[in-house]
Structures are given as structure tokens and as C-alpha cells.
Amino acid sequence: MPQPVRTVSTGNLGLDTILKGGLPASRLYLLEGAPGSGKTTLCLQFLLDGVAKGERVLYVTLSETAEELEAVADSHGWSLDGVSLFELSSAASVLGEGSEQSVLHPWELELGRTIRLIQSEVERINPTRVVFDSLSEMRLLAQDALRYRRQVLLLKQFFAGRNATVVLVDDLTGENGQRDAHLHSLCHGVITLERVTLDFGAARRRLEIQKLRGVNFVGGFHDMNIRTGGLEVYPRLIASDHHEPFVGEPTPSGVPEIDALLAGGPLRGTCTLLTGPAGAGKTTLALQYVTAACARGEHAAIFEFDERIGTMLARSKAMDIDLTPHLEADRVSVLQIDPAEMPPGEFAWRIRDEVENKGARVIVIDSLNGYVSAMPQEKQLVLQMHELLSYLNQQGVTTFLIAPQQGLVGTMGTGQLSVSYMADAVILFRFFEAGGRLRKAISIIKNRGGAHEDTIRELRIDSGGVRVGAPLSDFKGIMTGTPEYVGASAPLMEDRSIGA
Fold first, then answer.
1. pTM score, two decimals?
2. Which H/E stretch holds residue 43?
3. More confident position, 106 or 296
4. How would you label 221-258 residue by residue, b for 16+ Cβ within 10 Å and e otherwise?
5. Packing angle, helices 309-318 and 282-295, rounded to 10
6. 91, 163, 208, 488: which sits with the fewest CB atoms below 10 Å from its CB?
7. Distance (Å, whole) CA 158 – CA 150
């Protein structure tokens, strides 16, 4: 029976999740990426995790100085105490050689002697984790591709049997920035970091596991960010890995007339699309469901792309939907999302945090237009949104997705991207003109979870909250925005009576 492979943590929770636990121990790995992609930060996290576990660790630097590494560590609030730093520039003094020379630059050393100096330091310290930064300096010293690869192979053979997990860093500055396929074949695993500059907003960083022998890792690109405290990696969401049993019961809004439209409310584990022109009441209705969930003792989360949180809270309170007590009791989370600064992978990770760690049962995403801004490639957006909604559905979460339409009356499309086919229920809002006043109408387009009304009803939102009137059977052409009144009496709702 094969023995389980012993793994070593990378010191990064997100990367360990992608690797299904960590890196197989006592192997040689390649970490490659252009300058500024986060390689040094990730390497320090890897070594500091070893220090925290009481291991001996070694950082061999041919390019950066100890002061530069200290500066990187300080920026994250780390201390390098316990990390053995081996600068090649001071190798002579470390080994007791060349006392007449205080500074020994890498380019003044012959490649073979450089390797021997590194091997001597490894034998002296006997570390269990080693970072070798970087291979570009070895390329320069070798001045020949064959010789360079032979020396890398010798390094691999040297570390074999030493019970050390080694990370070789390559900044892709040689050979026109192309990846070295031969180097890939020598290493047990290859991790690639990328930095992508967008036309607007912060640069996006992402990570990919190119190969990892003997491990069923999560493939594809994974978004990441460098923040104070280290590199944050957001594993790509795979909905099928996160199914939880739940009961698909209705989610009431607290307004009987609204619940009647959907035969009790949207079912658990479904997504409801609220679509219509700006100002028609989409966010207010979603907040009504949030308030009702909090009143039941459930946790809810609102992800705001468009409206500022303060404005949303003040406006909802004016409509008799006061979220402040629920915020103070931590029954609802309101998160402001800046799509210019946050990659889509981080957005999905934040939703997972609300669902898995805080137990959110109702999620509101306001709005789809803001989400589109977070990912310019429409094809990728469709896949990302589909996977996110599938995940929420399998977790038994009731999701409300707000999608503004173009124009005052609006059309059946949702602008840049149509997600109506993904939604289990679609609530359509409309403006219409009657009697010289601008009115609102609400109707249910579809409900996969069960029966729904096919009527068009008037919607009123005022200081008393949300109201739904009788079916507008005395009008025709409401969907056009300019209906014709064919009834004999006034069927529309008026202002509430004083004291009502």
C-alpha cells in the first residue's frame, strides 16, 4: 500500500488550498514570474512558516541585499529573526575566505565556485527549507545555456536526500523572457506568478500551477493581491466541490402581497434577478428581503458596487427599512466593492467568507453593471458568474442579483450582459404614465421553483414601506411604458391616509 505523501505548507492559506494541503516535502520547485509579481513576498511567507514550526531555513540571495529583504519584511510587519540570509556578496567573509576583500560581487565569481559556496553554506546550516533567489544571476555567470542547465541539475542532485524543500526563483529576465522548458522538466513542480496591467485601475496579479507531480491540484488561473501582511491568493471557485444539504423552503419578504407573487417567496438555493430601470425599486425590494431575514435571526450580506453604503442606509431608512440595528447586532454585512481595485477572484472569495464563516443565508449583489466593470472579458464574466451562482445555490443561499436596464422604460435585455437565463426567478420592474403621474409596476417573468402570478401589479414605495396593489386589469400596454386606460373607475393606489 503506497504511503501518503508528506507535505509542507507554503505559509499561504490560499495557495495551500490550491495545492490540496501544500507542497510534497523534500523536492525541488520553480517559482517564476516577472519582476513585481510577488515572488519575494511568497518566498518569505514560505520560510517564515518554517521558522514558526521550529525549522531551520535559508534564503540564498544573489540579487537582493539583506537590507532590501528586511525592507520587504518590514512592509508586511514581519521579522526575519530565525531566517538565515546568505548573500553571495558577503560569501567570502561567511566562509572565512578572502579576508582581504570585504565585498565580493556575484559577477566576479566563476559559476562553479559560486555553486560550491552555496553548497558549503547549506551543509553548515542543514536547513529544511531553502529559497534560491535568483536563477537569472546563474544564467549571467554561465554565459552558456548548456552549462547553466548542467549546474541546475547538479544543484538538484546535491539537494536530493537532504530532506530539504527547495524553491528556485526565476524572474524570466533571460532568453527574451521566455520560460525554460528544460528547467520545467527538472523541477518537481512549477508555480507561475503574473502581473497584468489594465487600461484603468490597479494591476491584476494571478497565479497558476504549471505542474506538480503526484498532486491533484486546482488548475487554471487564481487571482491574488499583495497586501500588508503578505500575498493573498484566492483559489478559483469550483461550485461542485461545495455542495451542502439544505431544505428548499420559501424565503419570505415580510410583505404578504410580495410573497404572493412568488407563491411564498424565492426558494432557498435559488437566484432571483431584479431587473428594471434605475429608480424603479429594485434595491429597496432586495433590502426588504434582507430585513426580513435578519428579523428571523439569519445572517445576510449586501455587496454594493454602485451606491455608497451611507446613502443606501439613509435611503432605506426613509422607506421604513432600517438596517442599522441589524448592523449593530452583526446580523448583516454591508461591503463596498471597488471593481477598479478588486479582482473577481477576490470578490468570489469574500462571498465565500460570508457564507462559510458567517453563515449568510441571503446575499444581495448590487449591481451586475458593477460586476461587469470588474472583469472586462465578457466570456470570462459569464463563466465566473455562472460558477458563483452555482456555488451559492448549492450552499442553500437565497441570492438577489440586481441588473439595471437601459432607459426610463427599459428593455428586456440587461445592457452589457444578460444573465436572465441563469436566474431561477426574474422580477421585472417598470415605469408607466397614468393620469399625469409616473407610476411603477411589478411582475414576475419566471419562477423555476414553482408557481407565480402572471399579473402586472402597481408598486408603491414610500415612507411606510413597500406596497403592491391589485392587478392592473383596467390598463393595456403597460409593458410599453405608455399604457391605455380602459376601465370605468380609478384602480390605482394613492397616498396612504393619515395615521395609516
1. 0.85
2. helix 39-52
3. 296
4. ebbbbbeeebbbbbbbbebeeeeeeeeeebbbbbbeeb
5. 80
6. 488
7. 12
What's the residue count for the chain? Answer: 500
b/e burial code for range 340-375 (CB count within 10 A of at least 16 → b): eebbbbbbbbbbbebbeeeebbbbbbbbbbbbbbbb
Give the SS3 label for residue 220. coil
What digits encode the pLDDT tens for the residues 438-497? 889 999 999 998 889 999 999 999 988 999 998 888 888 877 767 777 776 667 777 775
End-to-end CA distance of the chain: 76
**CB neighbours (10 Å) of residue 435?**
8
Whether residue 171 is found in the same domain as residue 281:
no
Q: How many structural domains compose the chain?
A: 2
Q: Which three three-digit cell numbers place residue 14?
A: 490560499
Q: In whole angstroms, what is the distance from residue 138 CA to residue 187 CA?
A: 16
Q: Is residue 490 part of a domain?
A: no
- Name residue, grid cell 402586472: 456
| Domain termination site, one of 182, 207, 236 | 236
> What CATH number does the domain containing 226 carry?
3.40.50.300
360 contacts 299 by C-beta, under 8 angstroms: yes
